[in-house]
Amino acid sequence: MTSYFEQNRTEKQTMNTWRQQALLESLTHKKISEECSSINGVIRQLKQDYDYITEQEVKKSIEGLQHKFDIHAEHEKSRHFQKLVADYIQLTAPTGLTHPTWSILHLLIRLAYRPTERMGIARDGIILKNLNIENEKSDYKSIEDTGNLMKFDKEVIHSMSDTILSTWTDSEDDDIEVTDNKDVNWTTSCVVNPNIPLFCFFKKPVIRNSSLNDLIQTRYSSDSTSRTWTDFQLLHEVLWALQQSCDSNSFFVSAETTNSSVQTKAIRLVGLPHLSLHFFRQLLQAIREINLFSNKTSSQETYTLTHQAYAAALASIVADFKQSVSDFEKRVAEQKTTLTLSHLLLFLKPWASTISSISAMHKSIMQTSSAPTDNNTRVTHLLSVLFDSTQKAQVANYSTLYPVLLKILCSSLEPFLNMVDLWLSQGQIVDPFQEFGIIRNEAISPQDERFWFESLLSRPSIPSINFLKPLMDDILLGGRSVELLTKLKREFIDMNCVTASTCRSKTLAEIFRERFNRLASSDPFQCAVSQSFTLSAPATANPKQINSKNPLLSKAFKCLRNDFCRNKYSEGQETRLETLSTPPEFYPLLPLLEKSLLEPMRSRQRLVCKALLDTLFENCALGQHIRTLRQIHFMQAGDLMGRFCLQLFQKFKIGDKWDNESSLTLSLLNCISPRMSQSAPYLFVNIRKGNNQQMSVVNLSDLQINYKVPWPINLVVTQESMVLYNSVLSFLMKIKQAMFSLQRLSFKALNSMDIEKSGRPRQKEMLPSAALRHRLQLLRAWLLYFVSSVDNYIMECVLESSHIRLDMQLESAVHLGQIIDSHHDYVCSIHKQCLQQPSGAFLRDAINEVLSISMEVANAWKDGIESEKLTNLEENYVKHHQFVAAVLETDSAHSMLPLVETLAAALIHSCPATRRN
Amino acid sequence: MPSEVITLQLGQCGNQIGFEFWKKLCAEHGISSEGVLEDFATEGVDRKDVFFYQADDEHYIPRAVLLDLEPRVINTIMNSPYAKLYNPENIYLSKHGGGAGNNWGSGYSHGERLFDEIFDIIDREAEGSENLEAFTLCHSIAGGTGSGLGSYMLERISERYPKKLVQTYSVFPNLAESSDVVVQPYNSLLTLKRLTLNADCVVVLDNTALNRIATDRLHIETPSFTQINSLVSTIMSASTATLRYPSYMNNDLIGLVAPLIPTPRLHFLMTGYTPLTNDHEETSVRKTTVLDVMRRLLQPQNMMVSTTPDRNGSHCYTSILNIIQGEVDPTQIHKSLQRIRERKLAQFIPWGPASIQVALSRKSPYVTTSHRVSGLMLANHTSISTLFARTLQQFDKLRKREAFLDQFRKEAMFQDSLDEMDDSRDVIQSLVDEYTAATKSDYLSWGMNRPGALAASSQTTA
């Protein structure tokens, strides 16, 4: 070994300055200026960087190093190293151990400490030696130290490289025979080991062509000595290699290094069954892939948040793997029990299957992820595949793979949960990668009445994640509610209390994690035993349910449970040390997710929806507005609206100009002032222009009472429903007009009629007045009966019962959508039952006919009527009455108009018959 | 914009039932005996302004005019806790204080003398209301003041306010026991003529029936006036409930009354009320349903008019309005009507619309009752003519003997002749005839040369 270095010394010296600088830069990660290239400068630089080192740390490092030797059974070296350190300390004893001395010691040790850097220290050793020759006497010893270390390291390198390049031939013996078979086996190298220390690459241009690399290469390829290793040693090396492969950084670097072949070495393990080789290769290949993905996602921003979270979860699984490998290594080092490669294989087996499953799953995820589809599809695919595999794993492999997948699933869900959380607490969708299936339609502002139903676009053709399906409605509901709430908050200052209750301290993801962990970690069987946890552990509910349902099943379940417990506790501490705590394997996945995910989400959504409803009802007086519309447009305030109608009809009657919008508005406001003055600002009357404006019954339909519905009430009371309100109103007004006119016909006026008319020339054509009056009175009675019955039906069976129903629905509504729907149904059903839809047009026309007959009778009351005309009216009335009665008797009318039986019965049971004489 | 109603209380009986009526209204609207709104009633959505108006100090004053020719009843009122309720200017007591002496003629001529003073009050009240709809007159037809002065008032009001509805609550004398007023038949007949010709709607309160109901239903052996009057006030308040608690329908008196009265003279209405409870004993709490209430209302023993049993069974309802108070689902009404129709519980006229109309009304939130549902029936029934026929009989008995006519002859109206009495008799006779005619299907052609096109339906029951 020594001769090897001596041969190359001259060559090294030529590169000395270069290397000095390179080494320093790599050590300190700083640009080294020219002046620092002297040894003093180096020391100064080192001093700066290693100044913070404490004595304890160094001592700890030394101990660690010795321990490492012991692990590798290099007791001789350990002893030697101990001596060197002691000598070094002795050397500096007169002056006392100063801080810089410790620092230098630390530097030296640090260079040699990590197995990864051992090879590096070999090379650095040369440099340091060269450096040390120049001055610094006190360091001389340490150079020797490093020399020794270097020697040791070279041996390590040697042995390692031998191992790597060797084939294990003897399977029977504990001894390992290493033969150089490199050329043949290179292609089948199974372990990719990029364990060239990091700092070698920091200055690639400097080192790339260095003879060192060539040297190593030559060394590896030329060395043909075969070595026989013990199982123990090999175990160490394998473990070490495994650990290295988990170190994602080295992969990252090696992937970018051009001359990667330099660092690629291979291990051939002779004697182990071929399967195990394969096994290692697969395992490492899988890990490598996963690592590659993790690195890519962390470095590239094109990956969605979910992908990033997924990658992080994968990385943490790899970290767990590494941790458990190092735990195993520790146990090997302790040497309390005999651990062989076979043990390692056993130990790795579950891990291998887990990792290969993950890798398989990962592949299927990446298949679509790489395809140029939109992010939402990719995320959906990711979560779906994840969920499906988790569900499968629960059935097939519940003890090892399932918890791991569960963990990944939970982590991957986190970005989604965070987005939902933000939406549900602040009403904003933050989705930079467009990965979630919710898109806010920015064209529709919360002020828009379409807001509730059209503000959110669901992405087209989303194969939505099946377990999130029941959730989406809740999320959408909650999100819209919050958006409205936050908007409302700006409008109402005293809203703080409401939002305070909705913005809770914990985020949704936190709650989810907490709940999930509680569910997952709470030992379901312990809970089953101690009944006190029944509330907090839904897991207990499950066994119980089974117990109650099926005695056989419950027995089987009990056995299983006992087995499980025994296994668990016999394995004892070790099992407990597993980072993945024992999950409730027997608890079905979907309920588990529901318990931990749906419930908090639902409760959040409920809270938000309730807050919104409370705000709408309390601060925006939603109920008040609906009531006002009912009182005015549906004439629930019969007295006030009756008054308005009477005034209007009076104007008709005396032929006043009535179509003055402002005077009508004034009159309306005046009429409603006794009880509803608070609604006055919203109301105004307008008359639809374009139709002829003569005074007649028909003309009433042009009159509209508009209601300026304020935001956010317009979400419920839309413009569309206002049209319906008004069309019902005009129908009601027609009925009222006829009814009021008939009611107000006074018999006294009729008596005085013929006195007035007695002087008129047409007297002769008239019937004897008493008889005529009598007939007119009876016709009026019939008409009044008809109109009152219709009015009665509409007021009680249509309006009042609808309004009772609506009130109940409003009371029981849990979110705004229900209220919007209820109100819409309410208005539509009234509109339909008031025959305002085309399907009821023939009935409406018949009723309108009767109403106009009523108006004619009212006029006749005032002006007198000829016998012929009266007969006409009578016949006309009878015809229409019979028609309406006949129609109402039919089943179709019953199905169209609920509760119409009362009206039908009233009209059928007393139906006038025409009698011809 | 209320449709106000002015209440005129005439004579001893009129003032007593009026007093009970206002007591009841105050309780239902949460107004104290001094006219101040109680604290619990400030949020009410009821219409107090139909029967009350507010003084400058916001306290409520009834739209009531109290008239009497003798001070006894009015003094009782003025000594009661409700003394401060009324507007003192609206209380008119005849200055000589001698009363009408149970003489219709005396009451009538008092009216002529006091016209200016009385109509001062009435005009002031009428002008004080924004949109006066009706006058309600409370009186009895047997005495002197209620009948005589009442008749005079009816004539003058219908002249002076031809467009206003005139409704009366007329107490008919108890015919079961002998009255101390011997000229009762004369008084009744003369008043009935005015009720027929000058009133738009007469709610007949028959003392005979009221006493019967008090003894039979409320188990009071000797009912006092107060107890009888409380029955009357219950009916009066229930019949105005839809005006005072506005809802979809029947928000004005005329809308309530018009469908009940097909022809001008058939405007005498019977009433029935259920369930009746005694203030003193809450004997049994019954389960009240709409059907139950509506069926009970059709039972003759609940009618507040005692009609002689109908031998031919020809008498029938012209129209019925049921005012149902309480929390009622409209669908229940429909079912009840269906049942009543199926069982043919009510016999209707053969010539006109035959159906029970139902008006739903809220109950006062301030008066607790043990019943969920209560109902008032206002019915136009032809059998009411038996009441008039009875009066005619009694009148004829006296008239034949020319008994007790001296008192009347002292009055200006009867000084020359007793034609007024005979005229009144003719009017009532023709009224009875019309009621009888109304039971027949040819009522359409009654008094007509040629029948019209309207004919009866085949169905006569509803």
From TrEMBL, chain B:
Q: Give the UniProt keywords, A-Z.
A: Cytoplasm, Cytoskeleton, GTP-binding, Microtubule, Nucleotide-binding
GO cellular component term, pick one: nucleus
Source species, domain of life: Eukaryota
Instruction: Using the record's annotation, list all stretches that form the Tubulin/FtsZ GTPase domain.
Output: 48-247
Determine if Ribosomal protein is one of this entry's keywords. no
Annotated localization? Cytoplasm, Cytoskeleton, Microtubule organizing center
- Write out the GO MF terms: GTP binding; microtubule nucleator activity
CDD domains given for it?
gamma_tubulin (cd02188)
Q: Which GO terms describe its biological process?
A: cytoplasmic microtubule organization; meiotic spindle organization; microtubule nucleation; mitotic cell cycle; mitotic sister chromatid segregation; mitotic spindle organization
Q: Where is the Tubulin/FtsZ 2-layer sandwich domain?
A: 249-393
Query: Could you tell me which PANTHER family the record lists for this protein?
Result: TUBULIN
**Any idea what job this protein has?**
Tubulin is the major constituent of microtubules, protein filaments consisting of alpha- and beta-tubulin heterodimers. Gamma-tubulin is a key component of the gamma-tubulin ring complex (gTuRC) which mediates microtubule nucleation. The gTuRC regulates the minus-end nucleation of alpha-beta tubulin heterodimers that grow into microtubule protafilaments, a critical step in centrosome duplication and spindle formation.
Query: Family assignment?
Result: Belongs to the tubulin family.
Quaternary structure and interacting proteins, as annotated: Interacts with Ote.
- What is this protein called in UniProt? Tubulin gamma chain
